[in-house]
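I keep forgetting this: the sequence line spells out the residues, with the fold written below as integer tokens. I include a record here:
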Amino acid sequence: MIYNSNMTAEQIIKESVAESKYYNQKARRDWVRRMLDYYGGNDTSAYIDRFFDSKAFQEIPCYNANFTRRFVNKMSRIYTVGANRNVSEQYNQLTIKKNARMKHIERMTRLIGTVATQVIYKEVNGMAYFDYRPVYYFDVHLDDAYTPNAIMYPLLMHPEDAMNTDKLEYAYWDESVHIHYDESGNVLDSYEHGYGVLPFLFTHREEQIDEFFVDGANDIVDCNEQVNIAMTEMQLGLRFQMFGQPFMTGVDSDKRIERAGSDQIIDLPEGATFDIVSPAGNLESVIENIKFQVDLVAQNNHLYVQFAQDGGETPSGIALKIKDLERFEDYQDDIDLWRLYEHELYYVEREIAAYNNINLPEKMRLDFNEPEYPKTVQDQILLDEHRLNHHMLDEVDLLIEYNKDLSRAEAEKIVEKNKIAMEDAHLQAMKGNTQQNQKEGDNYVQPEVKD
């Protein structure tokens, strides 16, 4: 940037800082878009086209493998089977979408590093509930290096509508005010929301170190890009090996040579030669290199991969748990972090509910459901009997555990009905046994005893 000689030092500093912030914001937005593209598998060829700009390298499309989504989803275990929040029946109705939304938010936090989630109060057909809208790219105003007091972010502008030519629009939120404005800074709408809190939760992949934003799954996305490049190169090499590179000697260079197919004859002048050579290359070594890269990034994230040709026996539940020990330790560490986020989110929910004349308890009891490793039917039966015999749960709890769609009242009716049916069957069995014994007694013949 060129500065005017009439500018003061303060003006130069301000413009320099503003320009630096602009480039930083643009770089972060481009980075977020790249992470989302690799997670969704959308147009990832745009990121490797520059490595194949030669005409000879454009004979095949760029390869598009997508294991970023699988790795990120596999690492996100906190909400795999949801969480139990013991607050009130009214709160359960308000948060009917929470587990599903939090599962997605955890995955995006793993991918991007830092995600802002807006808490929205809605009423549809007389039913009130909270919805949770993640925001991936945003700017914040900070009280300190780690605590935001306001947020600004671009709004979605319906890109699928070809007739939409409106200007880009943005939103601003703080503890008291919401402002809706366009790309020129013109305020389109403004009002006091009355919540008394910033209606957003900020989740981070791990604890912040030296800035507000936290890095995401850079290693996984970079590895995905390297694999796409290597696979594209391998496909090009395979094509050249199959068709080869034709060449001629002893031919006038000014004469136009057409590449002919197998059903055409090439007329060569006397003394000329025609041949085809194939480039050397070991496809097996390329494949092994790709497998090594994928396996290395998996190990660095406490994951393991098994390729189709590896084979092997299916491991037992205990073997899986031992193999998964490091990832289980990561899971225990993450629970502590997400427990803090859950309580921060509940505080925001409680304030928004109070604004809408809904009173929620001051505290929430929380229990994350741990993912279970496979058990045999016999092991599951023994575990259920152990928990029932030691009064860790009752039959109603056990039925709800196997069928989460049931309410407790419905489960109680089913258990009572089954008990009555079993008692009736037992009485019928007892009655049948009594009649059989009586019948056998009537037909009993005293054996004759001889002297």
User: Anything to note?
Assistant: The longest strand covers residues 114-124. The two ends are 132 Å apart (CA to CA).
